[in-house]
Design brief:
Layout lengths: L7 E11 L2 E7 L12 E4 L2 E8 L3 E6 L1 H6 L10 E6 L18 E10 L4 E6 L2 H4 L7 E4 L2 E4 L3 E2 L2 E6 L1 H6 L10 E6 L1 H22 L3 H6 L4
Antiparallel strand pairs: 1-2, 1-6, 2-5, 3-4, 3-6, 4-5, 7-8, 7-13, 8-12, 9-10, 9-13, 11-12
Amino acid sequence: MFTGIVEEMGHLAHKGQGPSGLTMTFNGRVVLEGTAIGDSIAVNGVCLTVTQFDHRQFTVGVAPETLSRTNLGDLALGDAVNLERAVTPTTRLGGHYVQGHVDGRGILRERKGNREALWLTIKAEPAIMRYVVTKGFISLDGTSLTVVDVWPDRFNVMLVPHTQDHIVLPRRKLGDAINIEVDILGKYVEKLIAPIVQDRQADRAGLSMEKLKENGFL
């Protein structure tokens, strides 16, 4: 579990094929403090397991499913990434509950504003947009942000100067893919109320003139 508060920006130092598939090595400093083999580190919002590390970098394995759902496969050597260690019981929850399980990729369609306020508009598929609400939480490349405006196929966020200086998102170009994780609370609520909605729809579908007559209403 993560909070979406990026601890530092690292860089892709190496990628290649290992015995179990694709491996990636990232430079880092803060996220290596207290790290052990098997720990989780979010890279651009993707929860990955540390398989090797030293005082300046760590290595993770990346599964084909992860590559298909995220922008990690687009990274070139030297590209910057957002890094965050998994939370502990004493961690301040400065953002929101982020699992590091990316729901899909959005596309940066518009950027405007200035140093004081950078506005970014992200286009996303309907499967993601159904969970995006105005003033709700969303994780973009692992950064916890607040949604400002929502349209049927896109939404926007605003970055203040401090945020611009400490995350990868402002470096994105138009057309770049961005990892999106929606607020898990929305998905839980949907699953809980789905049976209730289905039951009500079934009841309405079963109401007819014949049934009303059978039960003495007509």
